[in-house]
Sequence to fold (108 residues):
Amino acid sequence: MLRKFLLPAAIVALSGLSVGQAAVAAPIHTFTAPYLQTAESKTDKLNINTATADQIAVAMVGVGKSKAENIVKFREQLGGFKNLDQLLEVKGIGQRTLDKNRSKLTLE
Fold:
């Protein structure tokens, strides 16, 4: 806490500027929260044929690490998904899960 107030005061005192001059000369810092880019916020969708299990788990609502790994295993057995409805054949993926995520996914 002392550092927050004493350090700027010391800099002003050593610089020979008045408090008013220092306030005008001091840069204004603005901090923003880090931008978290999700599959939905990007213009392109998550490619279910190339995504890793971790990427799938993060991007898909209702899909955790285990289900995401099941998706990747099934994809490898198929040689790639031809349509998104094939996700219904993956253990743990039902119609509601697919419907919630369909707009976030692509095959290309």
